[in-house]
Amino acid sequence: MIASASRWVRRARRAPLGTALGLVALGIGAYVVAGPLCAARYPMMTDLPFHAASAAVFRHYWDPAWHFREQFVLQPFAVPYVSMYALAALLMLVMPALPAIKIAAGLMLALLPVGLAVLAHGMRKSPLLGLAGLGFVWCGLTSWGFINFMAALGLFAMVVGLALRALHRPSRGRSLALGAALVALFFTHVFRFPFALAAVAAAALLLYPATRRWRPVVAPLVLGVALLGLWLAWRPEPLAAPLGPIGWHAERLGEIESLLYRSLRDPAEARAAGRALRLLGAVAIGAAALGALQGRWQGLPRRRLAWSIGAPGLVLSCAAVFLVLFLVLPMQIGLWWYVYPREITAACFVALGALPDLPRQGWLKAAFVAALGAAVVPLGRVTADNYRGFDAATADFASIVTRLPQAPKLLYLVFDHQGSSAISTPFIHLPAYVQAERGGWLSFHFASWGASPVGYRGRDEPGAVVPPPTPLRWEWTPDRFRVATHGPFFDWFLVRRRSSPDLLFHADPSIVRVAHHGSWWLYQRVGPRPSRYRLPTRLDLPPWLL
User: Fold this and answer.
1) How far apart are CA 490 and CA 481, in angstroms?
2) Helix 97-122 and helix 83-91: axis angle, to 10°?
3) CA-derived radius of gyration, the chain
4) DSSP code per residue over 24-70
5) What percent of the chain has pLDDT over 90?
6) Measured between alpha carbons, how far is 491 from 529 in angstroms, rounded to an integer?
7) Tens-digit pLDDT profile for residues 477-515
8) Confidence of residue 7 (pLDDT cuts 50, 70, 90)
9) How many Å apart are CA 364 and CA 347, to the nearest integer?
10) SS3 for 348?
11) What is d(CA 504, CA 515) in angstroms, rounded to the nearest whole number?
């Protein structure tokens, strides 16, 4: 470690401006990624509460006070979307659940610029181009909480960059790094994994005229194919669903803008995204023009010319594949929803790898880094401002959940989705933070789908205590709740609604209201469950129902 530090100091002294630019890039990345996560107690992401709850299951699985072994089975290989959960669970060993999941989410999102930097380095360009990847950290998919998918895009870029690096300058360390990145991608988002294997093979093929090598990537490819084969034999039924209707939908090209950056009702987001696109275009045109004026591509040896054509061709081919998927895939595959919209983000992010290299002159490079920073910083600032507003909107939730005990049997219903600037609702899964911080049971859980690293145990297993099943889309249709049907298992009931939900529990006199904070209402079962439920009478109904 001391020797590595000494080498770093020597390099910094030899290239002080390059070191300073690297530190500036790290500062910009830290601001864009961490700023919104630090601005709110609860990040404004739809699915993040359940990511926190699932990570807590891994952390406290063997703790009887949390009651997780009674409900869940861990399946980290059969459903290998586990990297963020494992990272957050490790962090939960030394800190509470909320900061742990926010740090884990930040590290996963940081893979976007880091992966793009590795890709640029593998293409023999400046890693400072990784700054452009920050423009996708707070895109529409992040607002849904698809953190694993976003991290997988960064890992995909990293895999391609490491493959190019291994082919250009082979070493055991680079081959090992490529294998490790493939394994990390497998355990982050398995759907992106076959494309990464294909990209590594394509890199060896397309770059063979430039490198005359293919063996450095064989061992990582064999490892990846073996992992994929084992998973295909072990995967659960929900992950084996057919693709569904495949067709060409050119009209989706008109949706690109809304799918990428229309995640907030704040018009500042669209303005920041437009400014970022214009600056990025200016950087690309300026870098290409400087390269042409300096004759960077003139008189190149044949192999170097083959590299200059093959490496961008590989990246653009990967982006083209994802664009085609965007145009042909359905919205839903089995239980997986919002399928085809994800692919346009993948296509646009990977296409950043084809950006021209930054100029080599120090002052020119500094100007281009400043332009990249000016493109991405406003996106982080706008997101942080809106997260700060969401923090005020969740103060009542943070207050009311303090009334809940350790390991409650909690049924929750979210009728009211107002109060945030997000287009997708960040309230719908918010009560899952209760399980992340206190354990216990929830009326709805991602485990019920069978497509999560955390699955429910069989209800007939000895010692299993599993919540009753809920119909599909239960969490989106709280009006289907009937206390006689859905309530007997639970002792606590948390409702988000503008008006009083007392009538929902009228048929069960053992359930009483214990707290009301803002739009959240908390009820507790204080007596034995009734053997029969009574129907509301005319006198019980509010006037607007008569």
Assistant:
1) 13
2) 130
3) 26
4) HHHHHHHHHHHHHHHH-SS-S-SSHHHHHHHHHHHHHTT-TTTT-TT
5) 80
6) 9
7) 999 999 999 999 999 999 999 999 999 999 999 999 999
8) low
9) 29
10) helix
11) 16
Name every residue whose Cβ is closer than 8 Å to that of residue 268 and which is 6 or more positions away in sequence: 382, 385
**Opening angle at CA 156, ends 55 and 339, nearest 5:** 70
Q: Residue 237: exposed, middle, or buried by beta-carbon count in 10 A (0-12, 13-18, 19+)?
A: exposed
Query: Rounded to an integer, what is the distance from CA 137 to the centroid of its chain?
Result: 9
| Angle separating helix axes 218-234 and 193-206, nearest 10 degrees | 160
How much of the chain is helix, strand and coil, in % rounded to 5?
60, 5, 30
Q: What does the alpha-carbon distance between residue 284 and residue 481 come to, in Å, rounded to a whole number?
A: 54
Q: Cα separation of 198 and 204, whole Å?
A: 10
User: Would the CA dihedral through 153, 155, 157, 160 be positive or negative?
Assistant: negative
User: What gap in Å lies between CA 259 and CA 97, rounded to an integer?
Assistant: 31
Q: Parse the chain into domains and list their residue ranges.
A: 2-39+75-390, 395-545
Q: What is the DSSP string of 92-134?
A: TTTS-HHHHHHHHHHHHHHHHHHHHHHHHHHTTS-GGGGGGGG
Report the candidate in 323, 343, 320 with the shortest Cα–Cα distance to residue 333. Answer: 343
Q: What is the pTM of this model?
A: 0.93
365 contacts 21 by C-beta, under 8 angstroms: yes
Q: Give the separation between CA 237 and CA 252, rounded to whole angstroms.
A: 30
Residue type, 259: L
